[in-house]
Amino acid sequence: MESTPDEAALVAAAKRGDVSAYESLLRMHQTVAYRTAFAITRSAEDAEDVVQAAFLKAHRAVRRFRRGAEFRPWLLTIVANEARNRRRTVARQLRLVHPGFAQAMSAPAPSVEAVTVEVDERRRLLAAVDGLGDEDRLAVVARYFVGLSVDETAAVLGVRRSAAKMRISRALDRLRAALGEDR
Amino acid sequence: MTELEQRLAGVGFPFPETPDVVGRLDLDAPRRRRGPSLAVLAAAAVAGTTAVLALSPSARSAAQGWFEWVPGVEVERTAELRPFPLDAAPPFLGRQASLPEARSELAFAPRTPGDESLGAPSVYLRDDVVGGIVTLMYGEPASPRLVLSQWLAANGTAKYQVAGQGGRITEVRVGGRPALWIEGEARAVYTYLGADRTRHHEQLPVSANVLLWRDGPVALRLEAHTGLDEALAVAGSIAGPISVRPDAQQARRRTGAPGVIMLALDEGHESAAGAGYGDLRRRRRAAPADRFWIGSITKTFVATVVMQLVGEGRLALDDPVSRWLPGLPNGSRIPVRRLLDHTSGLPDYFQVPQVARRLAGPRALVPAPEIVRMAASEPLVFEPGSDYGYSSTNYLVLGEIVRRVTGRGIGVEIRERLISKLGLARTTFGRPSGPMRGYQKGGQPKDVTLWTLGGPSAAGGIWSDARGVAQFFSALLGGRLLPPAELERMLTITKPSLMGLGIGGEPASCGRIAWGHGGSTPGYETMALASRDGRTVVVAAANAGGHSVAHELFAGAERLYCRVTAR
CB within 8 A of A38, min separation 6: which ones? Predict the structure, then answer.
């Protein structure tokens, strides 16, 4: 994916310190950034804080952005780092301090929607994704739900492209197993 | 793309709506948003001129540079004050309010000096920052002698710049807590998290003397045209224990639940709040005494009963399940403790379709032994002890074991050993009459109060008010329910579960460890968090079920826990 000419011009202006160019650039990627943050933090509120902090950090760093590189993966790397820092404690708390929550996320919880889960294919798929381990789930959510490219998924996972591909394929295998659909 | 990939790409994951973060960025930070605090300016106006005090070389803070003595307050000594942009905008102190009004709107209980001779203060309230800021002005309104401002310390930082030639900073103590006394020419920059969730910076000149300290979660600033002794006397008279006021309204907004109840128990002091509705049809407000389904928090009660039996020598954690329930598939390979921390590998019965189907709907009744039989005849999810997998089946099995050990059902044991013993007046095994109604979120919230998930069980049969839950955790962690060895074992985190026995323990966002459990049932989400010694407990409940409700409620409970334990 090449940067569009518009984007390249905005990046150049932002590097010169043009705040409104930088803001336009951010607006182009705000939704993807927010969804990526949400995929990692799993909290609307945390995701919002994360994106705000990441955008500020990116602003300070934009002068060092390499001309000709793609802006979105660079931005998503910053967002993902910020989100991971925030998630580090919260995620395990949710799993441990609130096992009921983990249950709700990982599989049919004792909730109305979950108890009737088997009638709903989409919910079943979402529940299976929720039931994946953190790394597998993030790979799937980033690649297919947020709709990132493999390179961008790698940036979000903080790994190389080859490792990201492996992780995505491993996650898909586990998902198939969880759904009882062997290849 | 494979078929699975296509299905995933087309699933339409329900992401929350993207907020306009860019629109709220402050890229020229710190950009001025508001004028200087009126409190400070009002105080300055009284003085007429800046108080200039001799620089005392003996002052501990005579050295130039930054130092931090009061958490959240940084002081920098400089040779001279850097240029300070004057602002034509009116100083901002908030709107005038009464003290009761302030009490009901702030996220904390405001402190007032105990000295009656000060007279009644003029009260100003700001609600544009998280938690609010209250300012009490004593003396003539036009020229107050004392100006006391308070806000949530976690939400704001203060930087003071004090000029080297005319100022002095002294480290003092107010009621044993570190405090700073700043005399002379100074300037302050306050940073607050605004109610719009962006940071606001406010710069202001200071000319009165300032005493800064923290009491629990609250930061206090006393601007005084008095000497240190008088300021300390006033500060010392500000009465103690601060109880944080739970922000149930905020949690209700974020969870989107019809009603939310939050309660904090700290050193015996209780502070509770309800927001929204406990019953939508009757338009009854949610009240702190409302009862709700605590769901899986029941598991901590059950684990406590089991550990009591262990303490009594009637049951051993290493007993294989088959010792008590012969014939249960895989029972000989699963020791009791693996049920307690979800490492047994028994499949969760909510994931077994033929069981789940029978649990759906109002008033479903399925005997626990039958559920256990159906779930346990499924293959193990993993080898016992090799992994962690939260499964309510574990607790149904524990309930059956308790029945074999004591000859009585788990409900009776919970009632006698825990509920009656602690005098929990509004805690019951099974649904009480007149609870907060439970709703399933959707276009039109659906009342699902009558759902039972098969009937009151060891996996989640308890209903309670928030106080009952808090009292239970306080008693458990305070050592009033278990012998020390059993409590210690319960609170020991082991692999692979990384939880204790029937209870989890993890650092909250503030780094302090919270112990507790959550509950998710049709119509209700509940969370209990407690300090290791049980002196602080936070309970939050919402009368709507669902992942997002649970997540936001948890975040709210965690924030409250962090605020209460900030000392």
Answer: A44, A47, B15, B16
